[in-house]
Amino acid sequence: MENTTIADTPLTKKQIVRAEQTKAIANLKRNYLKPGDTVYAILRHVSKSRMSRWVDLYCISAERLPQRITLDAAKALARSSNYDRRREALRINGINFDVAHDAVNDLAWFLFGNSDSLTPRWL
Question: How far apart (Å, rounded) are the C-alpha atoms in residues 81 and 36?
Fold first, then answer.
């Protein structure tokens, strides 16, 4: 975190999370994603209870190598607390739904205001 104070007043945790979210959204829009792109997901782990899944998110374009966007996506979704540094993946809780679809649609909503602007695909 670059700046944790404003005029000698410490930032609250909520302000820090919001600043990280804004920075991550700008980075994703500027460097990686545009409406209509496909975001690829890799399932990294499933808990024994099957209540949690850990997914890794990537964008792939013809111009460059696959880019891992999981950490920026977690920050953009304000789910950085759900980013598991040990597994290096985004933890999503719940059962009986497509976690890639959930994560990518949420990401599309935060980036472009339309949950259908990005396409989820499994790798």
Answer: 28
The CA distance from 60 to 48, in Å, is: 31
Distance, CA of 62 to chain centre: 22
Residue 5, in any domain of the structure: no
Structural domain of 64: 10-122
For 19, the 3-state DSSP assignment is helix
Look up the pTM and report it. 0.85
Whether 74 maps to a domain, the answer reads: yes
Tokens 């880019």 sit at which residue?
Answer: 67
Q: Which residue has the higher pLDDT, 2 or 60?
A: 60
The count of domains in the chain is: 1
Q: Is residue 33 part of a domain?
A: yes
CB 36 within 8 A of CB 117: yes
Whole-angstrom CA distances from 111 to 28, 31, 115, 116 are 8, 13, 9, 11
